[in-house]
Each structure stands twice: as C-alpha cells, then as structure tokens.
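1st attempt posting a full record on here, be nice pls
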Amino acid sequence: MGNRSRNTEQQKIEKDRIRQKKIDVNSLNKSAEDQKSADKDTDDKKNSAKTKKSDGSMVLEGNERARILFCSLIVMAVLIILDQITKDLMIKNYSVGEGMVIIKGFLEFLHIKNKGSAWGIFNDKPIVPILISCVLILLILFVYKNIIKYRKYKSLRICIVFLLSGALSNIIDRIRIGSVTDFVYFKWLDFPVFNVADIYVTISMMVMLILLIFSYKGSDLDVMLGNGYLDSEGNYKDKYNAE
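the predicted structure (as tokens):
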C-alpha cells in the first residue's frame, strides 16, 4: 500500500515536471515570437522612414547633393559638346548663307552668323545678349544653389541644367568666334534661324514656366529665391520669421 502511494506521488511529480517543461517551452516560443514581432516592427519603421525620405519633399543628404551636382555637370558637358559639334559641322561644310534642304519648303539647314541673342534679337547690339546671358546665368546658379537641397525640385533642376547648357554654349561661341552659329530654319513659318543651344533654352524655359504655374506655390518661389526653406518634413519655413 505504501509502495503504491509512493508510486502515485512520483507519477504526480513527473507529470508536474513535464507540465512545467511544456510551460517553459511555450514561454520560450512566445518570447521568440515577441522578438520576431519586435524585429518586424523595427524593419517596418525603417522601411517607412526610407519611404518618407524619398517622397519628394524631404531634405537631401550631403552625398546625394554631391552626386546630383556631379551628374548635372556631366549632362551639361554632354549637351554643350553636342551643340558645339553641330555648329562646327555647319562651319566646316557650309559657308555663311549656304546650307541644305531637309524637308523641301518646310525645314532647312542654313548657316547664319548671329551676333545677337536667340533668333537674332539684338543683332546690332552684341553687348546686350552677353550681359543678359551673364545675368541670367548668375540668377540660375543662385536658384540652383537654393533648390539642390530638396527632392521636391528635381524637375526644376533638370530644366536648369538644360537652360545653363544652352546659355553657356552660346557664350562659348561669342568668345571663340565672336558670334553664334545658327542653322535650323523652318522655312514654311519663316521663323528666325536658331541652333541646338537655343532649343535647350526655349524648351527648358517653357517647362519651367509650366512648373511654376501648375506645380509650385508661392512658398516654393520663396525657397528658390532664398527667402525660405523646407524642414526635414518638407514643410515651408520663412527664413526670417522661423518659429
């Protein structure tokens, strides 16, 4: 009888031990699941932060700005070289006043020397387009410096790259040969003869105007002119009355 009681007690102890082991295993599994859940929450927060960082309104990091500036300079160099090559081809193959018909009655290449600005404006006052170009370039560089910090103005930065490329390439002409070489002539419109650099300038200015009217607000214009800035959340702050 005593042995049976002892066996029953031992079985009870063994069952309690097994039950405790199960509890411990469940606790470990729960802890592991909690840790996985915590890690997942951390990853979600990191991914959310990355998404927020690239949403088009956040401030760019220094290395990102440097990369954008480097790429902008490379693109500008390519655009300027392309414009200079087209002008040199006209100079080497055609005398002034000569050219070739591309589409009869519609489009021609006609070699023209232009001492003025785009489309022959100020042709009798060559100093005027030089001064205008210099002022324009300085203003553009000032705006570019103010907006390069922000993702929001990517489209505007691209326009500025094309605008600067066109302005600089025509200035190179004036310094190198004393005038700008124009050759694209839409005969059916009797449109003033222009060049590839003029195309850069015209299209980029048109796109910039559209952006300013439809995509950007007055506060964005303040940022461009250096009167305000965007904080890390992309909210506008007045430079002189920031809270």
